[in-house]
Amino acid sequence: MDFSAVRSRLAGADGRFYWRSLGELADTNEFREYLHREFPEQASEWNDPKGRRQFLKLMSASLALAGVGACTKQPPEAIVPYVRQPEDIVPGRPLFFASAIPLAGYAQPVLVESHMGRPTKIEGNPDHPASLGATDAITQAAVLGLYDPDRAQTTTFRTEVTAWNTFLSAMQSALAAQKATQGEGIRFLTEPITSPSLAELMASVLQDFPRARWHQYDPMSRSGVAATVDTEPVYQFDKADVVLGLDADFLCCGPGALRYTRDFTNRRRVTDDNKSMNRLYAVESTPTLTGAKADHRLPLKASEIEPFARALAGAAGVTASGTAEAGRAWTADEQKWIAAVAKDLGAHRGRSVVVAGEYQPPAVHALARSLNEALGNVGTTVRYVPAVYTRPTDQTASIADLARAMDAGDVQLLVIMGVNPVFTAPSNLRFAEKLAKVGLAVYHGLYTDETANLCHWNIAATHPLETWGDPRAYDGTVTIMQPLVAPLYEGRSEHELICAFTQQPGRRTGDLVKEYWTRAFSGQSGWTIRTSDGQTFPSADAFWRRAVHDGFIPGTALTDGGQATPFKPGPPPSAPAAVTPVPVADPPADVAARPPQAVPPATQPQPPSAPSISGTSSGNLEIIFRPDPTVWDGRFANNGWLQELPKPLTKLTWDTAAWISRRLAAQHGLRNGDVVELRYRGSVAAMPVMIVPGQPESSVTVFFGYGRSMAGRVGNASEVSARFNAFLLRTSDAPWFGSGLEIVKTGERYLLASTQEHHAMEGRNTVRVATLAEYSEHPDIIHGMGHTPPRTMTLYPEHEFTSHKWGMTIDLTSCMGCSACVAACTAENNIPVVGKEQVSKGREMLWLRVDSYFSTGTAEELEHLANPQMYSQPVPCMQCELAPCEVVCPVAATAHSSEGLNDMVYNRCVGTRYCSNNCPYKVRRFNFMLYADWTTQSLEALRNPDVTVRSRGVMEKCTYCVQRINQARVDAKREDRAIRDGEIVTACQAVCPADAIVFGDLNDPESRVAKLRAQQRNYGLLEDLNTRPRTTFLAALRNPNPELEAPAQRTTTGH
Amino acid sequence: MNSKPVSTESYTPPRVLEGSHSYKTITEKISSIVLTKHQPVAWIVTTAIGFVFVNILGVSVSYLLLKGIGIWGNNIPVGWAFDIINFVWWIGIGHAGTLISAILLLLRQDWRTSINRFAEAMTLFAVACAAMFPLIHTGRPWLAAYWLFPYPNSMSLWPQFRSPLIWDVFAVSTYGSVSLLFWYVGLVPDLATFRDRAKNRVAQYLYGALALGWRGSARHWQRYETAYLLLAGMSTPLVLSVHTIVSFDFSVGILPGWHATIFPPYFVAGAIYAGFAMVLTLAIPLRRLYGLQDFITMRHLENMAKVTLVTGLMVVYGYAMEAFFAWYSANAFETFMIVNRTTGPYAWAYWMLIVCNGLVPQVLWKKSIRTNTIWLFFVALIVSVGMWLERFVIIVTSLHRDFVPSSWGMYYPTIWDFSTFFGTIGLFVTLMFLFIRVLPMISIFEMRTLVPEAKVKGAEGH
């Protein structure tokens, strides 16, 4: 050990050289050796007087260095607050910064609430066209992901902690070795990239190493849309009157879902004055929220969608070239369906749209496009634009190609970024085995997951809230990410990782992104930078400040004429090297203007491109793969909020289940929670089953994301649930569905923790439903379904609400059950995660729940329905004016406020639970144990400081986000004005993509909520009980095609 | 009682005191149970088992305080379960004592004399077991212990007087204190007897202190009689009020299955029913164990069996009315409540309840069964089980499926639910047997009024 070398290294470093830990400083081999030597070696030094002195010297040096290391500072980087300037920081008042949370490369634009430098809550960016203020549940949970104590924290090499600089030099030497072969042995594996600056870095690397290969793999890639087709559709549902979904879950999944939901629901906001709404037909292979919202839903096998689309195209008069696959003969009902839909579409030329499902093969997309073109919808309700991804590739082929190269020993350096292929790659590729043949594997990710475990280098990734970035949204709008907080650990961004392979490693993310856009501002890279009203910015700096402040660059949307993400190398660092640029095929600029295509011939399932698919399938069932609605492909498995968020429709938490139809369950003698073995193409997995009404009879739907072995303490599967892994069954030739599945009952039972066991309404009109025709004819039909008691029917004196009278309406015609509101409520109100066992006992703490009903009738009736109607109903506290809970509390811990809130005084509550027993809506939640995590340090920063963290033995419930009401009250008082309508936005309301939740003052007749409450389809849940709920619902209206559904003779059940 | 024409010649009412007893023999017989160094093996064994369960109760409550209500099976929607079931069950059992002491005293039913003392003791111990639950069932008992009382405090906060739980606090605490007073006042002359008869110095002091200087003077007797009558008068409405108010816990709620006007009388009848069954359950073995057949005669047992039968029929009438109301109201929620009780997942509890409380006690119509101690003992046990199930049906079955189908759930008790319940039974048994060991379980001086000599002074009795 040469201690003087360390000293000289320290002395020699200039002021810009920061080192943040011992590991980083220990850049010499000797020092590293010392650090990691085992005790016996040191013991030997005790016996040698010289050695001991040396040892003591080292000891003190390392202590001193450790002390210095604690003073690590992040270099200052200017970020721009969204609403107020930093000098406005007032303790207790949050600031909001625009940023984005990317998923699979696509930006979800957000505003992040920051309390004294701690990001605590995410809202949608209201100005961004892809959000309009909404977010989905996964994005809501990103703050918990940031503070997850299980995140990977530093750079390691073969599990030894080391320094980023060590990594940089190691990579430079690895690259130098590859220089001779032009990077023949270098492979990159990343998710598809939309970020222009990252694409440029990647292009630069590939320019320097022309024979290096870049593989893209997103296990949840929308293979049908973007993988092989260089254009993708962008829909404008706000212009569509008739929508046909071909296995399309456009309201729930996909990068544009938030905007699509808003546009779609805006066309069905029935008011007393405007009684018109759009109509949605859904053909689908598994029940989805989109299908639940549909006015007509037709369950089909996934493989029947294409013949169905072909039949429909025929009925709609679109000439189909090629021979149709010999599908089965359509039943009379289906033929009637096809004819009616074709007629309806034809009657709405230019105002209809056909949406092909993301998980359907390209042929269905081509058919949908042909239909849209024939119906004159292109340019109005749908536009075909270049793919947002840079260099779109067939991702399944891409990873198969990588696996083949790894197997052949051709890969000397593999860089995996943001993908977890050991868990998510198609099972037939046997990725984990082949990874062992790679010379040097580098893994960059948020967790030390299954892939990280098998890679030499592990680079901890920064969380999206910790870094800069410029991902693009579904429509191509460039969205600027800014860090809300300095990296909590020694994380490195994707930019910094790729930059390590350029000629200038070690550049910082903020500089890279800013520099790219500064160059773009000066006209390079093909971007045209304008303000949102088309003006030019005075300077690059003004542009950048505006872009960071707003969170996006206007005019970059593909639909606005923005360009596809270019794949061009950046300018060379110094003397321009004469390297031939990588030939990159730019997608044609104006694909939208192409002439209509003929329908392509039916595609046969491609022969397996991957080498080994052993075994044959004997089953006759169809398997359908879907991403999990909360943990996605498993990457959010360690997020407790998402695990405990009840999954749409089934309300299952913490686990996955294979969805089967009642008929299939009866055939195999299965009940919910029975574990079946799934045998498919020689692979075997197991899963507990769940009987889901509306599931096609011979299809089994399985969801990815469970069965993870190295997700973290929250997400790791048990020995039993390790088999519940759908990736075990997925092969590269049939990523989303395939036939030949066989299920075998194992006889095992598995506990499924669901927050709702009973999905039939028992004729109680919990959700009041009418068709548009019925409602137009008899507007009082909704009121007729219940009975409002006279106001005199109470013993106690009436409350007087002289100032405000808060109320909420929830539009059940708009709500589609995505549960983002539940996630938002969890984040806003410090709602604890209780775990599977407690959920299974009925002790989940969610203040707001989304109930799902499959039938308005009884459970027995539901048994016989193959294709039931599905309804979602968010249920927060009703804030009853005559609240049953208040009367029975012995200590007045729940009391009525002067503004009509049913307040909960946690400090006063002794926990008799009588209030919950007497609450007809069962919206109260009790801390049966100490659920709040009081010990995990990183989670302390997560909490909303405006909301009490509840302790054991206390009842809690929704308070209409009273902290936000109080904030607005303070603001209004300070400015000496009344609280404006719309000034208070509850957490659930803010996040709702359907704009279904409206909150406001009922004493103000001009308020939005008061007007909605005056609608004829407004009703109170269980208002017969004379609770006078303040939260009311707008009845769910359906708009069935009279040709398919004769108006039913309705018998109203109320009295 | 005399409604059916009975020829006075042929009818001699069964005696309430068998054998040929004098003042002396009564005093000796009853005090010998206590003032001895030897106890039957059965006493030692039962007390030991009871004490084991007292310890289980201690462990259960300690763990409860440490971890929270979550150790039980309670959940949302079933916020109350074993805790409140046990509370109502014990309170119900605690009704017989006061009924026997006060109401039967006022009605001049001389057969009450030999059973009132230990029935009152039973009441006290049952109330003690019951009173524990409202406290420990709360999430934060350390606060509930005093926040439910209207005590002056710096925040000027009162309890919320509209809540039946507050009424409960007053009802149960009043009932508990009046019962204690009544029991103690009744004990004073006997304590003096024990003071005089005890050989042990410590016992003499203790009984002496508790006897409050009773010397048996005429003035003492006169004051005693007045006080005892006054207390009996005060207790009488309490017998009706306590369970009425306990029933308000449910009937004030809006839950189908709770919200019914039948509840107060139905609960009071149920309480007396359960109480008499428990007195029978205790009296039959004790009578045998200590050879008290002369004092607790077959007439006592038969009378109690008759009361059990009558109150049991009232309870069954209550069940019938619940079903009738559900149908007659034409309210979908009420109708569903009955359908769910009878056919839902907890239908077993409902039908077991009907068997235990409705069918089995009908055997008591037969005199041969009423006078058979084995039969009586088992019928009484079954009634106790049935009354526990009744509270299970009312509380759990009503809560688990209420208004909004999405919130329906199930309740499964945990080991801690059972350990707490059986622990209170252990506490009850232990207290009961300690009482038998140290105090006269039958009122000596009142028994003495039953011997023929006592009748000489006047036809009206005392």
Largest interface: A-B, 57 and 52 residues
Question: How far apart, in Å, are the first and last alpha carbons of chain A?
Answer: 90 Å
Secondary structure: number of strands of chain A = 38
What CATH architecture of the largest domain in chain A would you give? Answer: 2-Layer Sandwich
Measured by DSSP, the beta-strand proportion of chain B falls in: under 5%
Q: Strand tally of chain B, please? A: 0
Low-confidence stretches of chain B: 458-462
Classify the secondary structure makeup of chain B into a structural class: mainly alpha
Shape call of chain A = globular
Helix content of chain A: 25-40%
As a whole number of angstroms, the C-alpha radius of gyration of chain A is 30 Å
The major pleated sheet of chain B works out as:
none
Unreliable spans of chain A are 20-24, 38-45, 575-616, 1051-1055
**What portion of the residues of chain A fall into strands of 2 or more residues?**
15-25%
Shape of chain B: globular
**Which CATH C-level class of the largest domain in chain A is it?**
Alpha Beta
Class computed from helices, strands and strand pairing of chain A: alpha/beta
Helix count of chain A equals 34
Keywords:
A: 1055 residues; alpha/beta; Dimethylsulfoxide Reductase, domain 2; six-stranded mixed beta sheet; 38 strands; B: 462 residues; mainly alpha; disordered C terminus
Report what the structure shows:
The complex is a heterodimer of chains A (1055) and B (462). By secondary structure, chain A is an alpha/beta fold. Chain A contains 34 helices and 38 strands. In chain A, strands 5-4-16-15-14-6-7 form a seven-stranded mixed β-sheet, with helices on both faces. In chain A, a hairpin with a 5-residue loop joins strand 31 (894-896) and strand 32 (902-904). The longest helix of chain A has 21 residues, at 49-69. The N and C termini of chain A lie far apart (90 Å). In chain B, 69% of the residues lie in helices and 0% in strands. Chain B has helices at 23-34, 41-67, 82-93, 95-106, 113-136, 141-147, 164-197, 201-210, 218-251, 263-289, 298-329, 332-343, 347-359, 367-370, 373-400, 415-438, 444-448. The radius of gyration of chain B is 23 Å and the shape is globular. In chain B, helix 4 (95-106) packs antiparallel against helix 5 (113-136) and helix 4 packs across helix 9 (218-251). Chain B has 17 helices and no strands. Chain B is mainly α and 462 residues long. Chain B has one domain. Residues 458-462 of chain B have low confidence and may be disordered. At the A-B interface, strand 29, helix 29, helix 30 and strand 33 of A face helix 6, helix 7 and helix 12 of B.
